[in-house]
Design a protein that fits this description.
The protein is mostly beta strands and 273 residues long. It has 5 helices and 18 strands. Strand 17 and strand 18 form a beta hairpin. The longest helix has 12 residues. The chain is globular.
Length: 273
């Protein structure tokens, strides 16, 4: 892997192979051999003291997939969110920067490239973290996505790629609505002339200020939200429209069908024991 090429990972699932993680290399996905999730890969790096990038070369299985076909959903492989807590979704905190700071749900609320989504969220950028034994947060990487906006519906989207070493001078994105195969609407957003590492430095101290946000083994997905991109108008999507999110320098586009779902959530009064 050339030092000038960003290191990107995806998470996949297959009816027979189960869950796998893979390295993006050109138009190929190289499946990892030992680590079946980015989370387990990141925790192993913490325990060994290795850099994630250096560990990759020691865990390639030799199995390669055609990325074009997988991304187009033309195979039995399907995407998982580009980061999650595979064993305990409740230990993955999904949140967004404010004002005010917002809880968006647990890892169980995350969806992936190719999944249907019950709301037209906004194109957003998220950073993902694990917490080490010393209580220190460690950034695993950044990914594009859509942050949940609904008060009841919690279904933020990640993916398809997690970039481990993104170093963008500008953060520019496009979100589009595709209706019946044609672009119906689009919008370009920009973080201005603020480099990505400055954005991270501004957001992270606030997010990890409280001690209970630094519990060993927890995972965090934190969207930049309005703090970076400001307020944005709603996306004019209809049932069965395709939502397409792209960020310059952050890998392939995220595509999801907008399908309204009947929410299983309802108000429940607690009764005394």
């Amino acid at each position: 892997m050339s030092s000038g090429i960003s290191t990107r990972l995806v998470q996949l699932t297959h009816p027979d192979e189960g869950r796998r993680a893979a390295l993006v290399y050109g138009n190929q996905l190289h499946l990892l051999a030992t680590y079946r999730s980015v989370y387990s890969f990141a925790m192993a790096a913490l325990d060994t003291g290795w850099k994630l990038r250096d560990m990759l070369s020691t865990d390639l299985s030799g199995i390669q997939l055609d990325y074009d076909a997988v991304h187009a959903l033309d195979t039995d492989w399907r995407f998982l969110p580009s980061f999650d807590h595979p064993e305990e979704p409740g230990r993955c905190l999904v949140s967004a920067s404010g004002p005010p700071w917002r809880y968006l749900g647990s890892g169980a609320s995350l969806r992936a490239h190719g999944d249907s989504v019950p709301e037209a969220g906004r194109g957003d950028l998220a950073a993902v973290y694990v917490i080490g034994r010393d209580g220190a947060p460690r950034r695993v990487g950044v990914t594009l996505g859509q942050a949940s906006l609904g008060a009841l519906t919690r279904s933020s989207v990640l993916g398809p790629e997690l970039i481990l070493d993104a170093d963008l001078l500008r953060v520019n994105s496009t979100i589009a609505v595709i209706r019946a195969g044609r672009e119906e609407w689009s919008r370009h957003d920009s973080g201005g002339d603020v480099p990505l590492h400055w954005m991270l430095a501004a957001v992270e101290p606030d997010h990890f200020e409280a001690a209970d946000s630094r519990r060993f083994g927890d995972a965090h997905v934190h969207f930049f939200g309005d703090r970076v991109f400001g307020g944005r108008e709603p996306i004019p999507a209809r049932e069965d429209d395709e939502l397409v999110v792209e960020f310059e320098g952050l890998g392939r586009a995220l595509r999801n069908k907008f399908r309204v779902e009947q929410s299983a959530q309802h108000r429940v009064a607690a009764t005394p024991l």
